[in-house]
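Per reviewer request, we include the raw input and output of the structure prediction for the construct analysed in the revised manuscript.
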Amino acid sequence: MPVDFIRDLCLSFPNATEQVQWGDDLVFKIGGKIFAVTPLSAQHRLVLCVKTTPDKFYELTEIPGVIPAPYMARNFWVALERWDALRRAQIEDIVRESYALVFAKLPKKKQAELSAPSAKKSTPKKLTPK
């Protein structure tokens, strides 16, 4: 499963952003907080890292090819060692869940800001004669 699939999926979520960090990792964020990471280089041993719930974390890490994410396992992040560790629909579900979990942990003010319509319609100013 190519990185383009993950990129398209992540950027389909409202207000999701992307940036390259740590050399060659493509990082997806909501409100400045990471919800998914995928390497751009084929040399990495992991293909995708996402946040999950505690119950789902233990369930997923029992699947061959899914491991606790390095440095982030204590926060219930999982990592896929290969794309075929999960079916495409399962990958879509865990990425969607990661986005929702990270969004839910944002401060309420930030959530409201991100949930507001991004482009407010402005009314044209009336011209007054001089």
